[in-house]
Structures are given as C-alpha cells and as structure tokens.
Design brief:
With about 230 residues, the protein is an alpha+beta fold. It has five helices and 13 strands.
Length: about 230
C-alpha cells in the first residue's frame, strides 16, 4: 500500500488567509494537488456529507452536516470545480449558491415556480406554474381588470407566491414580463429568490395560462348584457 502524506497549503494576503489547498506527498517526496482539475463532489444526505475526488473517488472529507452550505463551511477548503449532489439535484456549487444561497435558516424545502405576466392597455394577467423534478404540481392564475405598473405587477406576483409558502419552504420564482429591480426584492429576502425566466416547457405552460385567462375574461365581458 502506498503511503501518502496529506498537508494543507495556505495562501495569504496582508495577513489574511485567501485560500487553502490540499497537497499530496508520496514516499519519494513528490508533491501534487490532492484534488486535480476535475474537482470534487459534495454529496449530502440524511446522515451527513462526503466530499470525494472526481477523478479517483477518494473520500477527502466527511461530516454530520446535512445542509450543503453548512458542509462547505465546515471543511474550510475550496474545491474548483465543486459539484453538489443533494439527492434532489446535481449541479456546480456556484449554480447551487446562486439558486439557494439566500434561504433563511430553517427554510429547507425548496419549491420552484415559473410565472408569465402580460400587461395590456386595460388589464393584467398572471400565469404561475409550480413544478418539482420537471413535473407540474400546481397552476395558478391572477386577473386584474386594469393596467398596473411594473412595480405593482411584481408586488402582486411576489405576494401571491410568498403566501403559498409554509414556514419551512423556500421559493425559487422565475419571471417573464416584469422587470426585476433590486429595490423590489428586500421584503422577500430569505424566503423567495427571483430570477429572469428562460425559455422552457414550464414557461410555455405559464404563458398559455395567461392567454387563457385573457381570453376567458374577454369572452365574459363580451357576453355581458347591455
């Protein structure tokens, strides 16, 4: 069995640690990065976490933390790239952090929504699709018989999704048709994360809800007795 020594090498700048790297030293004194360019994978489950080297599947860290961010903080190491596998999704840590990094403590149940908004000269319609692992689990529509501002449209949508969430829920809402501005988001920080929607089957589904809502309300107006 080959004897290997593992050591930490710290990068410093102005008396502060800016990075930590694990170095492998073999019996001949030759050194190499423990984690090569292929990076590592963080796997989190109910019993804790493991970090393994992608190239060799060696276990280089383990612990009892069951939250991705707590696990990363506990090892005090940086792996590039780091893949996250939380049992539900598998993606790069940077993507995971972008999606879920703002969740407040205790909000561990992720719920995903995509919404489309259309504002016309005299009415506003919203179509909202909730989905899980690619499958639609619920649909919602909102109809307002008047034109509203971009900010009010966002507030109607954000409040609606906010009220759908339970105490342990953290919402991810992708939106088309409303401009997202930083000042709108403060109230929902830690509970709902907002992002611009990209083309997808779920967005198309939300757009169809909007079309249907506008059509139905137009028909109702046209059939009202004079």
């Amino acid at each position: 069995m080959e004897i290997t020594c593992i050591s930490k090498v710290f990068d410093h700048y102005k008396n502060s640690i800016t990075g930590v790297e694990l170095i492998r030293t073999n019996k001949n004194g030759e050194t190499s990065p423990l984690v090569p360019e292929s990076g590592a994978t963080l796997t989190v489950g109910e019993s804790g976490f493991l970090i393994t080297v992608n190239e060799t599947e060696e276990i280089i860290a383990r612990g009892l933390e069951t939250d991705v961010f707590e696990a990363v903080r506990s090892v005090s190491l940086t792996f590039k790239p780091l893949i996250v596998d939380d049992g539900k999704e598998r993606m790069l840590f940077d993507q995971y952090d972008d999606l879920y990094g703002g969740a407040a403590d205790g909000r561990t149940n992720r719920r995903k929504f995509v919404a489309s908004v259309t504002i016309t000269e005299n009415e506003t319609a919203f179509g909202i699709v909730e989905y899980n692992q690619g499958e639609t689990v619920d649909k919602h529509t909102i109809y307002i018989p008047e034109t509203i501002t971009n900010q009010n449209a966002f507030k109607h949508l954000a409040d609606y999704v906010y009220d759908l969430l339970e105490a342990k829920d953290y919402g991810i809402l992708e939106i088309k048709g409303v401009e997202l501005k930083t000042g709108y988001l403060t109230r929902y920080k830690g509970v709902v994360r907002y992002r611009k929607a990209k083309s997808s089957a779920k967005l198309s589904e939300a757009e169809k809800l909007v079309e249907s809502t506008l059509r139905v309300n137009k028909e109702l107006i046209n059939t009202k007795p004079n």
